[in-house]
Design a protein that fits this description.
- The protein is α/β, with parallel strands linked by helices.
- It has one domain: 3-Layer(aba) Sandwich (Rossmann fold).
- Helices cover 22% and strands 27% of the residues.
- The chain is built from 4 helices and 7 strands, in the order βαβαββααβββ.
- It has helices at 9-20, 39-49, 86-92, 94-97; strands at residues 2-6, 27-32, 66-69, 75-79, 103-107, 120-127, 133-141.
- A 7-stranded mixed sheet has the order 1-7-6-2-5-4-3.
- Strand 3 (66-69) and strand 4 form a beta hairpin.
- The model is unreliable at 141-153 (pLDDT under 50).
């Protein structure tokens, strides 16, 4: 696990850009943290770092549930905050996104641990104060087992 600290929104976006450079072309990335932890801010940097969009183009898909970015490298940004049951989740079509050659960023995905592949990447964000964030990256964890040998990042 790698641990990073950021001191501003700009630094969190820059960290997202840096992490994006290490992502495989097909990945599931769970962005885990409380409201206001910086999940969408980090997603802005990841989307930009992958060349799929500008940071200002990225917003939380809380009400639309899924935003799609890019034409070459494709990124799907999913927000499951408003989803509370497996039936609601099925209607979103997340399982179809997992079959695509894309990076899938998922906010609030920890609420449905059975859905994600064992080689998913988990990024835990914690708000330390108004500007500072702690960001922990756990590559390739499974639901109950140890980290795999993906070596990311």
């Amino acid at each position: 696990m790698q641990v990073y600290f950021t001191n501003s929104e700009e630094e969190t976006i820059a960290l997202g850009r840096r992490l994006a450079q290490e992502l495989p072309s097909r990945a599931v990335v769970l962005l885990i943290g409380e409201l206001g932890a910086g999940k969408t801010t980090l997603a802005k940097g990841i989307v930009h770092g992958l060349g799929a969009g500008e940071p200002d183009d990225v917003s939380s898909p809380t009400f639309t549930l899924v935003h799609e970015y890019g034409e070459g490298p494709r990124v799907y940004h999913v927000d499951l905050y408003r989803i509370s049951t497996a039936q609601e989740l099925d209607s979103v079509g997340v399982d179809e996104l997992l079959d695509r050659d894309a990076v899938v960023l998922v906010e609030w995905g920890e609420r449905f641990p059975h859905l994600w592949p064992a080689d998913r990447i988990e990024i835990h964000l914690r708000r330390l104060d108004d500007d500072r964030r702690e960001v922990k990256v756990k590559p390739g964890v499974s639901g109950h087992g140890p980290e795999n040998s993906s070596g990311w990042p």
